[in-house]
């Protein structure tokens, strides 16, 4: 196969090296260049030689090949190729670090792009850091997404769902449907009919679907949507939206009465902000009935819940809320939704609706709320008559990730009085966190330890927290 006419052959380099003039071995047919007019005489050496060869090279030493000619160019000392150096390079590749950090690294030669090995003072070779330092952006960042590759997915239109009568078997595993063990489920992305085992994944869908909650999709669609989840989480999830309910005053029914069960994180954020605002007003009017300032200043986190309690001698409690942790710089983490179910036993009777503020004392208490479920045991005095009452409690909480002491303050509404022993199970609402953040891999530890950025939807909560601690600084 003949060499292309537009390229310089390797053998021609030898010929150039042996001659000092272009004119002696110039072949116009081989180079394929048009004839030009004669130019003024030039020096006999190679014109504009990048290697700065002497104008009168001495070829008397006998360079008989192109390889020998190339070695005559000035270059850095290359490491000796032996078994020791090869093994050293393999160790550097496997361990991902330099074998000799203190050695002098050899800069790459201008005549080669293959200088990935350096040489130390002792003669050993090591892998250049540029080889094993990753240069690609993280997969979850927007700039890592190739739009042309995922264009068909990002611009997909909502499908028309197939009717249930279209098939009697799963369109993926071909298992027949049954009323109890294998029901029908539609994939929200492709509209096909699949069984429960083939639709376990939850994914955010592109913008045209107008869905901010993760939706059930089949396994095939889950694999297609998974590379885009980082982009969709940062753009269309509920956490990235502005708070819809940001007016916290008496003009709204929810402003003076918190419901014990919130159906979404947005509702929990509103309830928590309302509870903090109400507490600030009560603490300003009755400082002796508020949480001691020293305890609030030293808080590592706050859990804010609304709980309904009713019974005689044996009481039942149910409520929901959220928990936020305080970082070392004084800022607050993203919120995590929680559910509380409890029992009380003692000399008590009545019913009340309580807004709890639980002060997490120490990092162990924060780790306790990072558990999927934990148990609390404490004693307290409850008294409520009419719209305003007080409950002061101290309890010990223990979960799979630790235990800690917490102090509880509550403002209650109703008719209740009694002294009791209280036991509660507090669980993280993983479903609420998933609908809010849109990330199925997100854990409570990630949320409370500051890995997740503060969501825009929680702005009313952070405003209320800042007002609470601003008043503490003024005292």
UniProtKB/TrEMBL annotation:
Record flagged with keyword Glycosyltransferase: no
MF terms in GO: phosphatidylinositol binding; zinc ion binding
Residue span(s) of domain FYVE-type: 164-226
Region of interest called Disordered, as start-end residue ranges on this chain: 24-50, 97-118
InterPro entries to which the protein is assigned, alphabetical: SH3_domain_YSC84-like, Ysc84_actin-binding, Znf_FYVE, Znf_FYVE-rel, Znf_FYVE_PHD, Znf_RING/FYVE/PHD
Feature: compositional bias, Low complexity: 109-118
Gene3D superfamilies according to UniProt: Zinc/RING finger domain, C3HC4 (zinc finger) (3.30.40.10)
Keywords: Metal-binding, Zinc, Zinc-finger
Comp. bias regions, Polar residues: 97-108
Domain of life: Eukaryota
SUPFAM superfamilies (UniProt xref): FYVE/PHD zinc finger
PROSITE patterns associated with the record: ZF_FYVE
PANTHER family, per the entry: SH3 DOMAIN-CONTAINING YSC84-LIKE PROTEIN 1, SH3YL1 PROTEIN
Record-given protein name: SH3 domain-containing protein
Species name: Ananas comosus (Pineapple)
């Amino acid at each position: 196969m003949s060499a292309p006419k537009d390229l310089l052959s390797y053998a021609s380099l030898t010929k150039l090296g042996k001659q000092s003039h272009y004119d002696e071995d110039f072949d116009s047919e081989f180079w394929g260049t048009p004839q030009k007019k004669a130019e003024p005489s030039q020096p006999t050496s190679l014109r504009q030689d990048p290697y700065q060869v002497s104008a009168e090279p001495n070829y008397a030493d006998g360079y008989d090949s192109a390889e020998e000619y190339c070695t005559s160019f000035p270059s850095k000392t290359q490491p000796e190729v032996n078994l020791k150096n090869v093994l050293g390079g393999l160790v550097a590749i496997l361990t991902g670090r330099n074998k000799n950090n203190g050695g002098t690294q050899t800069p790459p030669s201008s005549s080669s792009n293959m200088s990935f090995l350096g040489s130390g003072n002792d003669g050993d070779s090591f892998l250049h850091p540029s080889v094993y330092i990753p240069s690609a952006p993280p997969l979850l960042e927007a700039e890592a997404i190739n739009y042309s590759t995922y264009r068909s997915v990002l611009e997909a239109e909502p499908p028309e769902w197939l009717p249930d009568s279209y098939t009697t078997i799963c369109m993926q595993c071909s298992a027949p449907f049954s009323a109890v063990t294998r029901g029908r489920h539609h994939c929200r992305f492709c509209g096909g009919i699949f069984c429960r085992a083939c639709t376990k994944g939850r994914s955010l869908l592109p913008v045209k679907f107008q869905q901010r909650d993760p939706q059930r999709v089949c396994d095939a669609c889950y694999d297609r949507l998974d590379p885009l989840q980082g982009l969709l989480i940062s753009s269309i999830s509920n956490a990235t939206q502005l708070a819809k309910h940001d007016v916290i005053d008496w003009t709204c029914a929810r402003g003076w009465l918190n419901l014990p069960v919130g159906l979404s994180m947005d509702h929990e954020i509103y309830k928590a902000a309302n509870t903090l605002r109400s507490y600030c007003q009560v603490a300003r009017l009755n400082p002796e009935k508020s949480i001691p300032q020293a305890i609030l200043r030293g808080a590592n986190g706050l859990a804010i819940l609304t709980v309904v309690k009713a019974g005689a001698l044996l009481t039942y409690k149910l409520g929901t809320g959220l928990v936020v942790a305080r970082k070392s710089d004084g800022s607050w983490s993203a919120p995590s939704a929680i559910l509380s179910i409890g029992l009380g036993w003692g000399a008590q009777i009545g019913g009340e609706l309580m807004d709890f503020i639980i002060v997490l004392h120490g990092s162990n208490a924060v780790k306790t709320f990072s558990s999927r479920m934990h148990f609390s045991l404490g004693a307290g005095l409850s008294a409520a008559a009419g719209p305003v009452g007080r409950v002061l409690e101290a309890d010990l909480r223990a979960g799979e990730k630790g235990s800690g002491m917490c102090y509880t303050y509550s403002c209650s509404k109703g008719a209740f009085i009694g002294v009791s022993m209280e036991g509660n199970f507090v669980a993280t609402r993983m479903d609420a966190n998933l609908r809010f953040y849109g990330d199925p891999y997100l854990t409570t530890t990630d949320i409370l330890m500051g890995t997740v950025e503060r969501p825009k939807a929680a702005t009313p909560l952070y405003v209320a927290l800042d007002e609470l601690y601003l008043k503490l600084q003024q005292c």
